[in-house]
Amino acid sequence: MITRRQALAGLGSAALGSALSPGLFSAETPQSAAPLRRGSPSGAQKPNILWITTEGVPLKALSCYGSHLIKTPNIDRIANEGMRFESSFTTNALCAPSRATLLTGKYDHLNGMLTNPGETTGGVTHSTFDPAQQTLPKLLRRHGYQTGMVGKWHLPANPGEAGFDYFVFKRGAGGPYYAPGGYLRNTELGSTTTVEKSYPGYITDNVTDFAIEGIREFRQPFFMMVQFFNDHRPFDPPHKYEHIYDDVRIPEPGTFYDDYSMRAAPAREARMRIADMPDFHPPDDLTERQRKQWNYQKFMAHFLGTLRAQDDNVGRLLDHLDKSGLAENTIVIFTGDHGFFLGDHGWFDKRFMYEQALRVPWMIRYPGVVNAGSVSKDWVVNIDNAPTVLDLVGIPVPEEMQGRSLVPIFRGNTPSDWRTTMYYHYYEFAPPHWVLPHYGIRTERYKLIYYYTVNEWELFDLAKDPDEMESLFEWAGYKVHPDYESIVPDLVNQLEALREKYKDDTGLPVRMWPTSSYD
Q: SS3 sequence, 68-131?
């Protein structure tokens, strides 16, 4: 069994972030160098950056990740013309916290956005986002970029103060999708003064219009962050896709009828079951099982129709780059804020550290630099996004950023010490879903989750139980399955080492090591 000290020492060299490794990036890839691709001896124009963040789209909903539910040809185009990562993770499967991490390259206990705005953890509001902190757009702007953000913002701060020259965002977190009011935009480039406007039409089309408008207004190089609202409740597809699934029965996932009997209490207590969705209005004469099936079909028809609208608009963005002559010198990144349960475990929404919520898409297209059609199995965590963009364009990465640049992987030179372990921390305990706070560690084979407010654990052997249906604990006796009694202490040591590495002292510390030796 390894000790916590040994685990920390090992992790310090294992590239799970840069928080304790000053100079780590410059030792591997010169952060202050020119961009990856150079032209004339004086250096070519720095590349533009189009960063697309999807809302709550799990891997199983994208055809480039093997989806049988829907075809997403435009999103697939980014993967086919660049590199797709098979193992990409979020550090907190919730909208605002994840977006704060993408902007800052830091875990939420350091960037301040623990929960969604105004939400609470244990009755106390914790979240805040100080726009004075270092952000990716601020750094890009200092090095000659014009910066823009359109779509979903969801942070309690003015985007201009966080580094954006141009911004148009919708107040709040979701719909309505048709002709919504509450768009806030700055009055001119570089201004933090906002004006509220309403726009007709469908919100996903509008967001794309705002992005194209900003790109046309920008000089080069530019950074445009496009943050789509869908797929988010109320899951309203555009009119043209409202009825495309009327005659289709969408297959239920294998874990649809999960009864949570072999897991910790938080899984049973969470309120996000398909059968109880308030979004739709099933007939009154249905049994509970029938209502669950009925809701699922309605939910999926709306979700997939809405996703088709997003894929259409990704195509519009790529077509604009082509037609305007910008495609060859524009980096396109596509990722997500978190995954989503599409009936998996009988749920909708996200939050838990289970695979469907934890994993997010990640792909990049950069002609002449990233090989088309390439696929990487190397792990990406959302703290890596900001360092990667900075490294791609030759800007030094601040030591305070905790992620690691993916540039060596793009070059085909994955460092020998690349991460095979990641740390997760979810905080928000609030209505309507009431998912208990937890943190955990995921390795290539195991996942250990600690629900620290109730002192309960879950352990999954992902090689034998990829659906995460059976936690390897007996809760009445607090015993670990005998085959795993030597594995759990090692995982706990690594978990504590990661918390120390990432400087996370939030939540409660480990109070009891799960072991088979308890009476």
A: CCCCCHHHHHHHHCCEEEEEEECCCCCHHHHHHHHHHCCCHHHHCCCCCCCCCECCECCCCCCC
Cα end-to-end span (Å), the chain: 22
CATH code at 17-36+46-236+299-413: 3.40.720.10
pLDDT tens profile 375-434: 999 999 999 999 999 999 999 999 999 999 999 999 999 999 999 999 999 999 989 999
What SS3 class is residue 415? coil
Tens of pLDDT along 178-228? 877 789 999 999 999 999 998 889 999 999 999 999 999 999 999 999 999
User: Position 394: which residue type?
Assistant: G
Domain ranges of the chain: 17-36+46-236+299-413, 423-501
Is the fold of 17-36+46-236+299-413 the same as that of 423-501?
Answer: no
Between 288-323 and 203-217, two packed helices, what is the crossing angle to 10 degrees?
A: 20
Determine whether domain 423-501 maps to CATH 3.30.1120: yes
